[in-house]
Amino acid sequence: MKVVGYILLGLAAAILIALLVSLSNTDAWFVRTLDLVREPVSYLAAVLLLAALFVKFRWRWLTVALLGLVIAINIWRIWPYTFLAGTQVSYAEGPQAPGARCFSIMSVNVKVKNDGYAQVAEQIRQIDPDVLFLMETDQAWIDQLEPLLADYPHVDRHPQPHAFGLVFATRLPVRKTNIVENTHRDTPTLYATVQPGTQPVEIIGLHPKPPLPTWNTQMRDENIVNAGTQTPDRLPNAVVVGDFNDVPWSRTTTKFRGTGQWRDPRIGRGTYPTFPAVFVAAGWPLDQLMLKGDLELQEFEVLPNNGSDHRALYARICAP
Questions:
Q1: What is the pLDDT of residues 228-265, one digit of tens each?
Q2: For residues 188 and 133, what is the distance between their CA atoms, to the nearest angstrom?
Q3: 3-state SS, residue 300
Q4: What is the DSSP secondary structure assignment for residue 213, as one 8-state letter?
Q5: Judgement on whether residues 152 and 34 belong to the same structural domain of the protein
Q6: What average pLDDT does the structure give for the chain?
Q7: Model pTM?
Q8: Residue 91 lies in a domain
Q9: How many distinct structural domains can be found in the chain?
Q10: How far apart are CA 35 and CA 223, in angstroms?
């Protein structure tokens, strides 16, 4: 039992050290990755804490204290994304104002190496969104989804052979669209201006690179922040959507939200994990959807597994 106790103490110390390192102001990929997994690490710490309570050894209460500190720090970071915090986006209720128009939007990271085309296509067909934003689309994915895309009056196809292709499809009247590469040459960002009601709405779709070996997060962070503050039309009503490869409580996405005055429907409701798709109960929210201006939310949800490594996001939004 003493051996088990010392193993628990070692794990508690290692997790706490990693957690403290993750609070540092650095762009190192291995540090920023730690920020993504605060929620599942809290679950792991809780399990280890319970185990430590039943193991009698000299350092039992130190181990319990270390694990309790891990949980407390993570809760402090995630707090806005719990049901105990106040909401930032209220659900619209009752009849809409004259001239208002509600539309649905769906964001799907299909995973470029995934060949389950039919499962993704079937989910899109069932949801039938007014606005569809696809990520990781190479030419094979676009070819397979072409019968479905043909139902949309406006489609922008931007295939890439690796993991950063985009597709934007909509039934809403379109004023203009543009796909730009505002940081990395192969990580495009979508800007679209649509007219769902009497006022135009800007839609921003992005998918920056994740923190991986040789990919520190400086460019990813610039992509996220720039996407929300350097919009072409500077419209008061806007939606941002996509796989940020970042979590909403990170310093980058928090800065993005504050600088651009974005409102996050997750705040006060929960973390709504989207990755990994097969085990979201202990996953983390890499895919984001936020609003600004007078836009209201009627629905917001993470959709069931469609065979990709991410689960899709769905929302119904009302524009004045």
A1: 666 777 889 999 999 999 999 998 898 889 888 899 99
A2: 13
A3: strand
A4: T
A5: no
A6: 89
A7: 0.90
A8: no
A9: 2
A10: 18
Under-50 pLDDT residues of the chain:
none
CATH number reported for the structural domain that contains residue 302 in this entry? 3.60.10.10
> Smallest Cα–Cα separation from 187: which of 217, 208, 161, 215?
208
Q: What is the pLDDT, as a whole number, of residue 187?
A: 78
Alpha-helical (H) ranges within the chain are: 2-22, 29-36, 38-53, 60-78, 117-127, 139-149, 218-229, 251-260
Q: Crossing angle for the helix pair 38-53 and 60-78, nearest 10 degrees?
A: 160
DSSP state of 55: -
In degrees, rounded to 5, the angle at the alpha carbon of residue 286 between the alpha carbons of residues 267 and 251 is: 65
For residues 203 and 270, membership in a common domain is answered with: yes
131 and 256: one domain?
yes
> Is residue 185, in this structure, part of any structural domain at all?
yes
Give me the pLDDT at residue 34, please: 86
* Residue range of the domain that includes 70: 2-81
Non-local (6+) Cβ contacts of 240 within 8 A are 203, 204, 205, 206, 227, 228, 260, 262, 288, 289, 290
Q: Do 309 and 197 have their domain in common?
A: yes
User: For the range 65-68, what are the long-range contacts, defined as Cβ-Cβ under 8 Å and sequence gap of 24 or more?
Assistant: 66/9, 66/12, 66/13, 66/15, 66/16, 67/12, 67/15, 67/16
Find out whether 297 and 89 touch, Cβ atoms under 8 Å. yes
* Cα 90 versus chain centre, distance: 19
Query: Is-contact 215 183, C-beta < 8 A?
Result: no
Residues in the chain: 320
